[in-house]
Amino acid sequence: MSLTRVCTATAASLTILFAATTSVEGATASETPSETSALSSLQLKTGASFVATRARIIRRGWTPIRMHSNDTYEYDGAEKRLAERGFLEVDSCSTDAGAHCIFYYLKADKCLRLDTVGEQVIDMKITRWTEECPQKNEGESTK
């Protein structure tokens, strides 16, 4: 096979791969097309400000799901700072690699999970989102 054919075949493969991975505009790797459709009106964007995104989804009728109100979970680090500032929908934050946090919201029978990165609230950015409800702890309700 000649070098020209190899380059042409490789370019075509990359074009097909790029088209396949970008076929659902704005979708993150964790989303399915149905999740994208259900959440598309929120216009969520990777890298967007968490504070601005939170304000927009609340204006559109989503309610923060208060996490850990009926269990013995103790907030620490970024979670504690978020809870003290009223972000009670925080489920957890990792303590390594730049504070990855998980937040949950509810609208009718739909749940929204937002994942963020950033140690300071003002600097937190959206990294992914899914139509996912929090796991129930014994004695807790997600709705």
Percentage of residues in helical conformation? 25-40%
Strand content: 15-25%
Low-pLDDT residue intervals, each spanning 5 or more residues: 1-35, 138-143
Distance between the termini: 61 Å
Rg from C-alpha positions?
A: 19 Å
Number of helices: 4
Write the H/E string, N to C.
Answer: HHHEHEEEE
In total, the number of strands is 5
**Rounded average pLDDT:** 75
Q: Which geometry do the CA atoms define?
A: globular
Strand-pairing-aware structural class: alpha+beta
| Largest sheet descriptor | 5 strands, antiparallel
Any overview of this molecule?
With 143 residues, the protein is an alpha+beta fold. The chain contains four helices and five strands; from the N terminus they run H-H-H-E-H-E-E-E-E. The chain has helices at 3-21, 33-39, 50-59, 78-84, and strands at 63-64, 90-93, 100-107, 110-117, 125-130. Strands 1, 2, 3, 4 and 5 form a five-stranded antiparallel beta sheet that branches. A hairpin with a 2-residue loop joins strand 3 (100-107) and strand 4. The radius of gyration is 19 Å and the shape is globular. Residues 1-35 and 138-143 have low confidence and may be disordered.
Comma- or semicolon-separated keywords:
143 residues; alpha+beta; five-stranded antiparallel sheet; 4 helices; 5 strands; 20% strand; disordered C terminus
